[in-house]
Amino acid sequence: MKPETLTLPADLREPAIFEGVVTPGGIDDQVLVYPETKPPLKWFVAITFTILLMLMGFGFIGYTVMKGIGAWGNNNPVFWAFDIINFVFWVGIGHAGTLISAILFIFRKKWRNAIARFAEAMTIFAVMCAGIFPLIHVGRPWLAFWLFPYPNQRALWSNFKSPLLWDVFAVSTYFSVSAMFWFLGLVPDIASMRDREKNKWKKLAYTILSLGWRGAARHWQHYEKAYLLLAGLATGLVLSVHSVVSFDFATSQVPGWHMTIFPPYFVAGAIFAGFSMVVIVMIVVRETMNLQNLVTVRHLEVMNKVILGMSCLMGYAYCMEGFTAWYSQNNYLIHTFKNIIGGYYGWAGWTTITCNILIPQLLWFRKCRTSYFWMILVATAVTIGMWFERFVIIVISLHQDYLPSSWEIYKPTIVDFGILLGSFGLFFTLVLLFARTLPVVATTEVKAILPGAQPHHGAHHE
Amino acid sequence: MSDRAYAVLGLFDTPDALMAAIPKVRDRALGKVEAYTPYPIHGIEKALGLRESPLGGMVMVMGVLGAATAMFFQYWMSAVDYPIVHGGKVPFSWQAFVPIMFEVTVLFATFTAGLGMLLLLNKLPFFGHPVLNAKAITGITRDRFALAIEAPEGTLDIAAAFQALEAAGAVDLEVLPATETSPQFTSRGVMGFLTAVVGACGVAAFLTYWAIKLFHVLPPMADMQKQPRLNAQAASRFFKDGTGMRTPVKGTVSRGHLGLGVATQDEAAGLPNPLPRTEATLLKGKQTYTNHCAVCHGASGNGTPTLTAAYGAKPANLLARQFKDYKDGQIYFVVAKGKNSMPAYGADLDEQQRWAVVHYVRALQRAQDAKDSDLK
């Protein structure tokens, strides 16, 4: 054994990341009990509501497929509207999960462990919601496989110089990697559930899903390596995915899109929106599933600090948009910027600025960072604000571009709103199902960081 | 004690006790020493003398392979097999291929890390391991730490293993029989499941095939094919009379195709050639003659065809006296209206082209029968 050389003094170490006495077995009894028991009535009420919402959304999607995308409000020149807004919105929501599970893992932030599992699940569900939109946006979704380069009788290949194709690769890679990361984390937890479960069929299902995991030291050794590698890969990926999404805009010449700030601006916005969604969902999960001792107020406060930081970054990005418009002295860019703060859709621009920049400033106060009321207020505002930000970027830029003769006002139809609400229904249906079938807290990871969980605690073996 | 013993396993309640026991048990050299823990224990790989995981190298290799594969395929597809200029960029614009190269690198590396770890290094899924059937497994995946001495069937000294583990402080010792089956899985059950999966794949493939086949011809997906339009040789629903186009207003003349103003070839003899006999006119006439006339009348106008001989036609020898005596207007009339088996070219050639051809035919006639004075 190496001598203990670098040990932080007690007051500099990270404070405890749970409250009260938490034992490894206690975590199992607390967290894994939910999939084993029948859900309460409120769960059934909630999932009925979300399923109805989801079915309504799929009904409107079916209507769109039958009628064509003329059922939407999209027009010439606003070819991209709710479809792409919702896509960017949902992909962005997903980013918090990967950030928490990958980037904070690499930085060894222990507070991530209690919320990582749920955030990762939200990533996957959000990317699933996001994936629907480009699919229906192409108009004939049954031909969407044309997006992939496959040998075909027409002897054609996809255009690899198009950012839209990069997007196909980026989002599908993101989904695969997130799913792999999530599943690997789940395997040992599912093994715990397998060995607790009494019901024959549930035990069979958990046996299959746990792949026969038996906790052998030789397995853990490879497992930990794989997890570290995946975290590293996902870190690069999470930064790249929303950058590639922003290329869809930035590589075009539309005023308001053609900007070099877009990739970092999109990534910051994605983390911003994602953390807000995680805060909202974690509050609900914490209260309904009695996880107050594992997901502490400190977790929520740290997440709120991230939201505050990202809000400041967004404020900087918005100012840079204005500065770029002024400094470029490009009439079209200036016109687009004026449209954001004072045009027909000026109210959308101000909604964005209020919700994303002004309201989150409340989080400078410790009281707001630790009180449910203010947290939920800010997180909801950010979710709305980030949706409107994409509305501003897409619709305002498109509805008045270079050619005044083709300027046109965009008005969404009921189908647009129906599909948007339906995507929320799908997301929360999946979240609710997940909460009652799989461990919502990464029990194995939390066990490993409890006091006394590692031999000669205090020293880090890296 | 069964002969078919595979391992002796004992439990510990703390990771410190487990770590303290490992060297003691390993010193006895009774078999492979393996620990089973609910979560990864730092430093246990050194205590057990495990080699470092080769996963990093595997991921590195596959990541580089992913990058190379992506770049090569993008190069081959965009620059070799289907070179199309997009946005004025050269076919092999490697900068534009970087995003996908990155994504494929991550994809290859991720699947290597995840599946390589599970399938190759850990040999999972495997449901028949003796530990999974042990009484201790509920503790192992919860909060207890197991140490096992494992050896191939029949070679394990059970009494010595018991004694070694007890001396190291283990409790709840048990002997694990060398079973290869799981209570949840019998080989028949697994085969049945796999057969069901294969069958389901087959059904899904069949349905997908037909769905893709039929999607295009079912409404509303067939709307694009079935939109109102004109089809060749088919009646149209546009108009009551079933035609797809309207007859032009009476007296309509297409541009460049005014009427000749004469009814017979003899009447046409009086028409003067309006074009001046310039080099430009002759070049235009040559082009028109080459494109439309030479195939029958021959490049020099001598009626030696390049194509029509096969059909037994006898195109006129334009150099003959009869045609030399034609007035310009008469040749013009034949070009426009045709003569004998020669079809009319009025629809293909406008007025300018017809008169230019007349000039060129005159030039051919003179060139084939040049006089000495022409050379002066």
Write a brief structural summary.
The complex is a heterodimer of chains A (462) and B (376). By secondary structure, chain A is mostly helical.
Characterise the protein shown here.
The complex is a heterodimer of chains A (462) and B (376). Chain A has 462 residues and is mainly alpha-helical. Chain A has a single domain, classed as Up-down Bundle (Formate dehydrogenase/DMSO reductase fold), CATH 1.20.1630.10. Chain A is 68% helix and 0% strand. Chain A has 16 helices and no strands. In chain A, α4 packs across α9. The C terminus of chain A is likely disordered. With 376 residues, chain B is of the alpha+beta class. Chain B has 2 domains: 173 residues, no CATH class; 102 residues, Cytochrome Bc1 Complex, Chain D, domain 2, CATH 1.10.760. Chain B is built from 12 helices and 4 strands, in the order βαβααααβαβαααααα. Chain B has a 4-stranded antiparallel β-sheet with strand order 2-3-1-4, with helices on one face. The chains are: A mainly alpha (462), B alpha+beta (376).
Give the distance, in angstroms, between the N- and C-terminal Cα atoms of chain A: 12 Å
Give the biggest sheet of chain B: 4 strands, antiparallel
What do the pLDDT scores of chain B average to? 87
Quickly give the CATH architecture of chain A: Up-down Bundle
CATH class type of chain A: Mainly Alpha
The H-level CATH homologous superfamily of chain A, spelled out, is: Formate dehydrogenase/DMSO reductase domain
Helical residue percent band of chain B: 40-55%
Q: What oligomeric assembly is this protein in?
A: heterodimer
How many structural domains in the coordinates of chain B? Answer: 2
Q: How many DSSP-defined strands of chain B?
A: 4
How big a fraction of the residues of chain A is strand? Answer: under 5%
Tell me the helix content of chain A: 55-70%
- Low-pLDDT parts of chain A are 457-462
The class by helix and strand makeup of chain A works out as mainly alpha
What is the general shape of chain B?
rod-shaped
Largest sheet of chain A: none
In N-to-C order, the SSE pattern of chain B is: EHEHHHHEHEHHHHHH
Count of helix runs of chain B: 12
* Helix-strand string of chain A: HHHHHHHHHHHHHHHH
Q: Using a beta-carbon cutoff below 8 angstroms, give the protein chain pair with the largest interface and the number of residues from each chain.
A: A-B, 79 and 76 residues
Q: How large is the count of helical segments of chain A?
A: 16
